[in-house]
Amino acid sequence: MIILGIDPGLANTGWGVIESAGSKHRCLAYGCITTSSEEPLPGRLARLHEELVNVIDRYGPTECAVESIYFGSNAKSAFATGQARGVALLATAGSGLALGEYSPPQVKKTVVGTGSADKRQIAYMVRVLLGLPEEPRPDHAADALAIAICHAHASGAEGRVRLAKAKATRAARLAAPPEVAS
Asked: Which of 7, 51, 63, 143 is catalytic?
């Protein structure tokens, strides 16, 4: 499975693409889309959308993971992040990707083992888990890779549950008498 992780932000949107097979993960690419505060908001959002669609077209992920918004004390920043997150959701929905959403503490706990990990710990563990020669930079790209890793772990368990439910539904359907159209 190929997973696109997105760390949304209006000024900096990190992205990372991993290939995941069970507990093995491999980094395919990562980067950061940067927009200038000098540029009008609609242009910044359009550029985020265009570049995310380009990443999706280039790497062909089957699933996407996006970080949910953390509302700290800065409402203006949360609003801007929400707009960038909306663009990321639009880009993934337009490409028909399965979507997972994870809070910052969920991502940190999955990747580092504690929900209060700092940026350095995340970058270090991403490097270790993906076998990279160095820590991914900038931090937004490292965070995006961490989000993709979190999704790989979550979808492994969720995938097994979905498969079991699908098998049970199919078995029930096969056992039920056929419907008669009137």
From this structure: 7
